[in-house]
Protein: NnrU family protein
Amino acid sequence: MLTLLAGLILFFGVHSTRIFADDWRTAQIAKHGILKWKAVYALISLIGLWLIVVGYSASKAAPEVLWVAPVWSRHLAALLTLPAFILLVATYLPASRIKAKVGHPMLLAVKLWALAHLLANGTVAALLLFGSFLVWSVVNFAVSRRRDRRLGISRAQGTLKADILVIVVGLVLWKVFALYLHVALFGVKPFG
Structure:
C-alpha cells in the first residue's frame, strides 16, 4: 500500500502545481525554460505512474475489501466510461464543439472514469486510487474553469463534422478497450 501511496503523491504532486503553486510553476518555467520543465514533469509523472501500477497490482494479492460491488455496477461503470472516451478524444481534436463547450474534456473524462471505477471496485486500494483521481479531477476542473473565466479565455466554437468524428472515434476506442484491451491489460472483463 505504501508504494501505491508514494505513486499517488508523486503523480498528483506534479499534476497539481498549477492548482496550488501556479506562480512557482511560472517562475520555474521562466528560470529553466519550458522544455526542462516538461522533462522534469514527465519524469516525475512516469515514476509516480509506475509506482501506482506496481502498488495497485500488489494490492490485488491480498485485497482489503470495504464493500462488494453488485454485478450491475460493472455494467454501469462500462457505460460511464463511454462518454469518458468521447471526452478523451475531444481533448485532442480541438475543432470540436464538445471541447469548446467543456473547456477541459480530459478532466471531465477522468471524473467519469474514476467514478465508474469507484462504483465497480470496493477495495481500500481502489478507493485510494480512483477516489484520489476523482477528487483531483473535480478540484482541477473547477480551478481550470475559474482560471479560464479570469483570463477571459474563449475557445473556437468548433464544427459538427469534428463532433461526429470525436464521437465515432470515441465509440470505436471504447468498444475495443471494453471488449478486448481491458481484460488483456487488467484481467477484468467489463461485460463478462
Observations:
- Residues 124-151 form the longest helix (28 residues).
- The chain has a mean pLDDT of 92.
- The chain is about 80% helix and 0% strand.
- The chain has two domains: 1-62, 64-192.
